[in-house]
Amino acid sequence: MASPSKGIKTWFVESLWSGISELYSSSGIEKSHVMGSISVPKKEFGDLGCSIALRIAKAQGMRPSDVAKALIEKIGKNDLVSDVRETGGYINISLNVKEYSAQVLGGIEKDGDSYGSSKLGEKSKVLVEYPAVNPNKPWHIGHLRNALIGDAISNIMDFCGYTVEREDYIDDLGLQIAESLWGYESLGGKPDKKFDQWLGERYVEVNKVMKEKRLDDQMGALLKRMEDVGSRESLLARQIASKCVDAQYETACRYGVYHDVMIWESDIVKEKLLKKSLDLALRNGALEKRESGKNAGCIVLDLNKVRDMAKDFENPEETDKIIVRSDGTATYVAKDIAFHMWKLGLVDASFKYKHIGKEGGRELYSTSSEGKDMDFGKADLVVNVIGSAQRYPQLVLKAVFSLMGHEKEAERIVHVAYGEVSVEGGSLSGREGGWMGSGKAFTADSLLNEATSKAYEATLESKKIVKENVQDIACAIGRSAIRFEFLKVSPHKAVVFSWKSALNFEGNSGPYCMYTFARAKSILKKAGYRRMELDKINLDMIEHSYDFELIKLLGEAQEVVEKSAQEYSPNVIADYISLLTVNFSKFYESMKVIGSGGAQDARLRLLDAYVQVTKNMFGLLGIDAVESM
Fewest 10 Å CB contacts: which of 26, 29, 352, 406? Predict the structure, then answer.
């Protein structure tokens, strides 16, 4: 069902555009200008306003009020609109409270769990890659932010009608893995804790050794042997990485983060995907092999060809971006070019996929030497959740695609850059072991453990929260508090995780939104609420007050979801949940529900609608809809 809010705005714009086309066709006004001039005025002026008359008046040398009044004459009737008037050159409309309330409440009842969904991405496949953590350490909070953003974007895109493929790239052949393999074999000891934690600590020890000894040649040779398909080193590296990934996925499951497929770099090497892709790029002239000079023997991107594509390429002293080194070793960007050619269906790979299991209702597969053919990849849109520091490599990737003649495909590669993360100060350096935290909760596991512990203490102390199932409630609060705290911030901004903010039961936090949701459920339960047919409810009892303000907000759900999808910004949903929570609280604190006489049925239905829409939005962010707190 189309959003009631979007429907009325579309009607308003179309009506105004029709009048402008007839009366002021020479004004230079375009339809997009009309859409951009729609806003919400102060309550005393109406429910929706438009300032386009001011712009037309300036272009035509007329009084804004005269233009506005002339356009109003051309606006037809709409059952959802009770009044259209001019105020100071603005065109303002007031909604028919009863009819608009019926449409919103009826739509929520009809669509239920799908209310707010969209067909924005219908018949399109989007591949979302996250968090692509090297398989030699536990998730730290930076990785966690990546995973939560990717998971939420996947949920939102799915709600918007896209076919979503949730993908995790496992780099089991990088230098970090070679160093971890060396440590595994050379430092001794056996795992005595969760394997990713143990291996990560081992990796930190290796880097301490490397500062004292020159091991570069050993690491380079080991990396070469790892890339030799079938060698002892390649098999052992895959075995160690697999155990680490299994441990990392235990963390993912604790947070409710799931995938459809894992793509292993070692399997990409087996398929010679890199060679196929580089050969294609060389034939198309997007890449070149230098025969002389300082980069002799290297495959490079000639930056002189792409200067106008991004300011990042404007440095005249940098003429080549090395893609493959003279010794034949591929850079990160080279591998990324090959991988994205596969993602977008520009090159084929005969991957086999092994079924790993079912997690969170999703079947998980992994590339493997054995398995079956499956239809992964070949996406219409690729979304990469990668740190802001990877902006330049992502631009190089898009530049290569453009030079190959695949400009449209380049535009379909989206980099969702996210800012740095910290917990009340500290470093997250992987090599230095900053993720160990020095007593602070810097791994994703330790963060959740501490959040659950703090939430447990808060539930015992709180006078608001019921004491039944305290441990289960504490787990849900802890997990959801972390999710909300990370996702309420725009991805590109830095996050400083604050316990005071995350576990605040009074402000803009996951627990506050959860508690308000549970309170609404308890009111419905106390009232013995049973949903009755809408035409049997006296909607004349809806006032143009806090109740109608909440109804108008509920009517905007689809617009909010579409905006979040188009901007790849889960924080748009978090902001909407906060608004719903605040507006519900104002409504409930100001307007009696149970025992409100003839208004009770209408107000209970409004509570029911708030619960449904909030639950739907919770689901997009992975927030637990706890019904009793």
Answer: 26
Is residue 465 classed exposed, middle or buried when 0-12, 13-18 and 19+ CB atoms within 10 A define those classes? buried
335: which 2 tokens? 């591998």
Contact 320, 338 (CB under 8 A): no
- Give the pLDDT confidence of 512-521 residue by residue, as tens digits: 999 999 999 9
Q: Which of 388, 496, 490 is nearest to 442 (CA)?
A: 496
Please report, for the domain that includes residue 16, its CATH number. 3.30.1360.70
Report d(CA 470, CA 477) in Å as an integer: 10
Between 426 and 264, the higher pLDDT residue: 264
Cα separation of 319 and 288, whole Å?
12
Confidence of residue 386 (pLDDT cuts 50, 70, 90): very high
573 pLDDT tier (thresholds 50, 70, 90): very high
What is the pLDDT, as a whole number, of residue 213? Answer: 77
Domain count, the chain: 1
Structural domain boundaries, residue 44: 4-95
Classify residue 462 as exposed, middle or buried by CB count within 10 Å of its CB (0-12, 13-18, 19+): middle
Q: Evaluate if pTM is beyond 0.90.
A: yes
With tokens 């076919």, the residue in question is 163
225-to-209, 219, 271 alpha-carbon distances in Å: 21, 10, 17
Secondary structure string (H, E, C) spanning 540-554: HHCCCCHHHHHHHHH
**What is the pLDDT at residue 138?**
95
Whole-angstrom distance, CA of residue 588 vs CA of residue 206: 59
Mean pLDDT (the chain) is 92
Residue 73 lies in a domain: yes
